[in-house]
Amino acid sequence: MLRWIKSYLHNRRARVAVDGLKGKKVLLRHRVPQGGMLSPTLFLVFINDLIETLPNGIHAALYADDLVMWCTEEHATTATCRMQLAIDNLVAWAEDWNVSINREKSSTTLFILSPKQKAGTIKQDGTSLKTEEEVTYLGVTYDKKQTWRPHIQKAEGKTRRKISIMRKLAGTTWGANENILKRVYEGAVRPHLEYGSPAWSTAAKSQLQGLDKVQNQALRVITGAMSSIHTHQDHVGDCWAAAAQRQKRRQDHGAG
């Protein structure tokens, strides 16, 4: 198996071809072939021991090459020192394996309710990492006070744009029927409303009301109801009932 993998990676060369003109072949000394069937698996094997190098008290989540690290401490200064040690270990691992860390995409965020404690400076190779009030990881936006307002506002914006498309598909004398509009809602609108809900289901009711409003707009488009009519189960039938059930499961999961 090792010899087979070695033959797959060893002595690979690449060149650029433009309008029939071919450049000189260059030996690829690092990385795996882009688009290769084995490349994702080999990369995961390669990067898998990264988390093991992190110090005690540091938690981490790794999705392909997207890494997030965090720790929980009573004082911000303690958290800063612990995270700095984690960054130092990460840099050392990257140097050992000839991996570059994108500093422009790296940032720190202090999640805290008290305004008295301030975020400390964390450096990578002597350069301070930028500090942000909110950060997005795998499509979910986390704000420093965990109100989830930025994430919900982004979800509302994406949903409203999809609803505009639904309105163009639905005409009074022509256009898509209710079944087609319901499929568009389920495939293009509802995912934006519910993505990452296990994380942000603890948001205040006042924050979640914005999502309820845009969902009602979508359901009115499906049923042809006027904006002055309050949507409820009698108007939207199974579509609303299913949404309500999912929302309850989301809230129960957040409470648990």
TrEMBL record:
PROSITE patterns, A to Z: RT_POL
Coiled coil regions, renumbered to chain: none
InterPro entries: DNA/RNA_pol_sf (IPR043502), RT_dom (IPR000477)
Organism domain of life: Eukaryota
SUPFAM superfamilies: DNA/RNA polymerases
Domain Reverse transcriptase: residue ranges: 1-142
Membrane-spanning intervals of the chain: none
Pfam families assigned: RVT_1 (PF00078)
PANTHER family cross-referenced by the UniProt entry: REVERSE TRANSCRIPTASE DOMAIN-CONTAINING PROTEIN
The name this protein goes by in its record: Reverse transcriptase domain-containing protein
UniProt organism field: Littorina saxatilis
